[in-house]
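Ticket reopened. Same input as before:
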Amino acid sequence: MIENIVGGFSSILAVGPITGIIVGIIVGIIFGAIPGISCIMAIAIILPLTFYVDPIVGIPMLLAVYKAGIYGGSISAILINTPGAAAAFLTAQDGFSLTKAGKSGKALSMALYASVTGEMLSTLVLIFVAAPISLISIKAGPIERVFLLIFAFTVIGSLSSESIPRGLLSCVLGMLFALVGMSPITGASRFTFGFTELLGGFTFTPMLIGILVMPEVIKALRQRNTPHQNLTLTKSSNPADNRISWKEYRSVFGTIIKSSGIGTFIGSLPGLGSSPAAFLAYGEAKRSSPNPEEFGKGSIRGIAAAESANNAVCGASLIPMLTLSIPGDDVAALMMGAFLIQGITPGPTIFYEHTHVIYTIFAGYFITDFFLLFIARIGFKFWTKVASVPKYYIFPCVTIFAFAGSFTANQDINDVLVLIIFSVLGYGMRLVGLNPAAFIIGFILTPFFEANLDQAIAIVGGNYLLFFSNPFSWIFTALTVLSVYSSMRQRKKAAAMKESVLIKVTES
Amino acid sequence: MNRRKIDVTFSTFLILVSLIILFNDNLVEGGVETELGSMFLPRLVAVCIMIFSATIGIQSIVKLHRGTKLESEEKIDTTGFLGIALYLTIFVLYWLAVPYVGFLAATPFAMLGIAFLLGCQSWVTMVVISVITPLVVNYGCSNYLRVFLPNGSLF
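Engineering reply: fixed in the latest deploy. New output:
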């Protein structure tokens, strides 16, 4: 393993991959920092560019966009109290309080150092844990994989949406769309209605951009009358207010480590994402802090906890994808798409079939943190200016990039129609409370599910009891039931809490 | 707009689609015989769609019947829908125009249209951006990605 890691570092330290990482970081920070644009949009737009480059250039570039985008979200959260993602909500609370006190430099520095530390720790866990887990998961045969995928569909569907039926419906709708076209097993054409264009199924890139990116553009159009807010970096005359001293960093280091641990754990579980990690870590930091009353009013410990947990999810979210072929969230689903387009199937075999590529990607993921630290640190003022660019300049460009990105997939103008249709569908899904991420994950995993199910049926023949002859089948069935049950319980608890808060508010 | 009513309509639609998938054999053509068959998974998915849609639909019907207060996520704000319709119209027209007039000629108009919808204030900058962006995208696609964006058949 150490040999592979060293080999990975020697491959990544070349002009191409490093340029890709730097470009990815710059794009990620810019997109992450602009309010209303998420890093997912940046990844989806950059995705078509990576088709034509080597995987050791393209994939680290996408991962750099991801990491930098998550950090970039904290810039708008701190400067104008507008969290780009739900996970940055807590950063906004403490960060904006510091900005109002003229200490935005301190808040931004804390967010950066905590983000980078959290990401680094989680990347180390990814590097050292993913390969050993894959040793176990590679032993799973088609029957076990069927149960594993059922577990993945259920857990992602039940955790990722506002209600369990809506999450699961999103997932099965994704599965239905994946079934359009020629069956890879029987060669039959399904749901094509005589259109030969549909034989290959829906092209992945335009569908992805349509479902995940374009609804954000549509949302911005609906909010076009909201006044534009300029980001400004407040600077204090006291230099200590514009930076984080070593002493301050050391004082919160324990919190960063603990929060990174929470983020890594939550990130490695499919379907949870960065928001629960940030909230849990923030709560824990507040509970164990000597000054809990400062939280929400400009506490650097609060920023450190939220940001390190939030960013630690990045590395860990790739663990289920690389070891079990289960993308844990929407970004992991995008990354899985990028791997598949490059001809690499994420899963336990990746460590044996593409050893060089995967360890180079890991090395790239690790050194991205150093570049992020350097690039973000030198350009606070610049990022603030770039992130203040009005939406009427950005969204026309995003639309054109989406158009070009969709066209480049197959050099087919019909793919732009797919983009338009899925843009409407993606926005409609958000309106009715369906989850686009669960839809995409259902879409991506269905071909694997069908192939494994077919093999499993061939193995068991007519004796269907053989499906349950393996302990893995029982374990995953139990986990599936447990995930739905715990999700139901959590939702009931949350509803009861909401009701009691409402009663208290009405009484007061 | 009340999302519960949309839920009921949407669920009914999905249940009907699922019934068609379950009982219509003409949705699949050709293919070899396997143990699983070509329509096993689509039908399994259709059953799941029916179950989840029915759950959502029934919950909404019960809430509508009881007249319980709408929760924040159940209210759909329709302000700005005209903007969405105009944006999609621009996008469709752009898609239709590109094969005839070409990417370089059609893109500035599409960009200016979208910028207008978003309430653009500095038009000189926007015109410059709308001319430069397609040139850069076209150059990047043809030289680095080896993808040739449509030139148009009219010129």
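Helices of chain B lie at 3-23, 40-66, 81-101, 103-117, 123-145. Strands of chain B lie at 28-29. Please confirm and we'll close it.
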